[in-house]
Amino acid sequence: MSSTVALTRYTANFVDELSKSGVTDVVISPGSRSTPLAMTIAEHPVMKEWVVIDERSAAFFAMGIAKKTSRAVALVCTSGTAAANYFPAIVEAHYSRIPLVVLTADRPHELRDVGAPQAIEQMKLYGDYVKWFQEMAIPEASEKMLDYVRNKAARAVFMAQEGNPGPVHLNFPFREPLVPDFTLENLWGDHRAIEPRNPAYDGKRQLSAQQLTSFLQELEGKDKGIIVCGPQMEQELTLAVTSLAEAWGVPILADPLSQMRAGEHAKDLIIETYDAFFRDEALRKKLSPDYIIRFGAMPVSKPYLFYVNENAHTLQFVVENHAGFREPTGNNTGFIFADPVLFCEALLQREHKPLHNKEWLASWQEMNQVAKKHLLTEATGAITEGEAVRALIDVIPEESSIYIGNSMAVRDLDTFFLTTPKQLSILANRGANGIDGMVSSALGAAVYGNPVTLVLGDLSFYHDLNALLIARQYGLNITILLINNNGGGIFSFLPQSQEEKHFEVLFGTPVDIEFKQAVNMYGGIYTSAESEEVLKKVLYESYQSKGLSVVEVKTDREANTSWHRNIWKAIAEELKDEA
């Protein structure tokens, strides 16, 4: 049997099993050594290939698809530093729990560590950031080897999605010749085998009746509880958490990425402005709880982190779908490893529940209303970053997704994204909280489904400008709200801002770029807005057009910082006066 036949059958069986296991999308970056995988995927009758030239952008693009679809997405690249460029997205996928199947081509063993070109050490290249690594065998076409390669494909997809999802890595050593022969009969193997080779049934975890009783006993006699919902993507949790909060009479502190602030569910108990009034230490002390139950990851809000640290001895529980210890404060915390929806439903079925303190709940609701009043106050001068977020929420279409950037963008969303009946999905890269790959990720989310609006700052936009080629290449519809304060606006809120000698060079880092030219280069529509009303108009128009639209809002870092601080001060003063 020729080496070409062996290569073709080996690779075709692997790719076909990926498809049978549920992989529909593969993001490919061009290269020579990856030819067998790339061509076979492109030839497959079911899979959709996306060709993205830059590997770093490709990996974030794949992550955006996986995040939006909740399906594993595969990546293919050639050997050498191409694989290294995946690393930032793999780190983010690890911490964000996003399933990726990373397929790196490699030189065969005889060309490693001998000075061959484009050969680096790819064994366990991503370390502990992948859930599972396999060095694949040299291609053969025996029945045993075709079984082997299908088993590895099925296991890779399962491992990427099992438990807490995450990336897996398979490294393929290929010898030349590299071009498959697609004229072979029965190219994809046994067509009668429609199901995946190794079907796996992974059930949901629940607490036992005794464990539920023990948990409720720990809340005995406590009447000042709060439910916290941090970043998470499970839409079913929204109704489950609100139902539990209503039954127990406790407030819900809803992070902007919790999926709790938007939708048709009841929102009377949702407190979305806690970040604003938690900035005052006296108000945090006034709201000291008896217990905290948290769903999802740690909230974005830094003042919430202060609140938890100051209540280190408060009884606290974190509910996780699977194993994981996402509690950065180091406080004494109980972990509940169970499906969060089933956990809420099981608690609702119990007659026993914590004490209901109406005054406690009312105090949270009153503070939330005061904060909302101030957060809706218009600025007197040029448009601010908070007003830009408010304008977006007003005009964004139903059934949309917001992909929010890190640093200042997500914090402004936290502050100014007030509850709305609109059906919105809020996405972000909050695993490692980096600014890289934001445009690529949002474009990945725009591949399927509802309209996507990316909100980010100028540094994040600059960092991933090359991703705009993907929008032009595939005609993807996306609106980018670019908030340009000419530098790192978040540093203006940090102690570094007081170091005038070094601040601008080391932290402010203005780039002084006319982004309009870059948008035009990639065939996008560019507009700008200097007021909230104009911004609403141009955003609305962007949703009526196809392709890439970039709406730029230019703000002043110093004025923006002062405006934010004045609002927080006004909220604290009014709440203290009422107390």
TrEMBL record:
<keyword id="KW-0479">Metal-binding</keyword>
<dbReference type="InterPro" id="IPR012001">
    <property type="entry name" value="Thiamin_PyroP_enz_TPP-bd_dom"/>
</dbReference>
<keyword id="KW-0808">Transferase</keyword>
<dbReference type="InterPro" id="IPR029061">
    <property type="entry name" value="THDP-binding"/>
</dbReference>
<comment type="function">
    <text>Catalyzes the thiamine diphosphate-dependent decarboxylation of 2-oxoglutarate and the subsequent addition of the resulting succinic semialdehyde-thiamine pyrophosphate anion to isochorismate to yield 2-succinyl-5-enolpyruvyl-6-hydroxy-3-cyclohexene-1-carboxylate (SEPHCHC).</text>
</comment>
<comment type="pathway">
    <text>Quinol/quinone metabolism; menaquinone biosynthesis.</text>
</comment>
<comment type="similarity">
    <text>Belongs to the TPP enzyme family. MenD subfamily.</text>
</comment>
<dbReference type="Pfam" id="PF16582">
    <property type="entry name" value="TPP_enzyme_M_2"/>
</dbReference>
<keyword id="KW-0786">Thiamine pyrophosphate</keyword>
<keyword id="KW-0460">Magnesium</keyword>
<feature type="domain" description="Thiamine pyrophosphate enzyme N-terminal TPP-binding">
    <location>
        <begin position="13"/>
        <end position="124"/>
    </location>
</feature>
<protein>
    <recommendedName>
        <fullName>2-succinyl-5-enolpyruvyl-6-hydroxy-3-cyclohexene-1-carboxylate synthase</fullName>
        <ecNumber>2.2.1.9</ecNumber>
    </recommendedName>
</protein>
<feature type="domain" description="Thiamine pyrophosphate enzyme TPP-binding">
    <location>
        <begin position="427"/>
        <end position="553"/>
    </location>
</feature>
<dbReference type="InterPro" id="IPR029035">
    <property type="entry name" value="DHS-like_NAD/FAD-binding_dom"/>
</dbReference>
<dbReference type="InterPro" id="IPR004433">
    <property type="entry name" value="MenaQ_synth_MenD"/>
</dbReference>
<keyword id="KW-0464">Manganese</keyword>
<dbReference type="InterPro" id="IPR032264">
    <property type="entry name" value="MenD_middle"/>
</dbReference>
<dbReference type="GO" id="GO:0070204">
    <property type="term" value="F:2-succinyl-5-enolpyruvyl-6-hydroxy-3-cyclohexene-1-carboxylic-acid synthase activity"/>
</dbReference>
<dbReference type="Pfam" id="PF02775">
    <property type="entry name" value="TPP_enzyme_C"/>
</dbReference>
<keyword id="KW-0474">Menaquinone biosynthesis</keyword>
<dbReference type="Pfam" id="PF02776">
    <property type="entry name" value="TPP_enzyme_N"/>
</dbReference>
<comment type="subunit">
    <text>Homodimer.</text>
</comment>
<dbReference type="InterPro" id="IPR011766">
    <property type="entry name" value="TPP_enzyme_TPP-bd"/>
</dbReference>
<comment type="pathway">
    <text>Quinol/quinone metabolism; 1,4-dihydroxy-2-naphthoate biosynthesis; 1,4-dihydroxy-2-naphthoate from chorismate: step 2/7.</text>
</comment>
<feature type="domain" description="Menaquinone biosynthesis protein MenD middle">
    <location>
        <begin position="222"/>
        <end position="404"/>
    </location>
</feature>
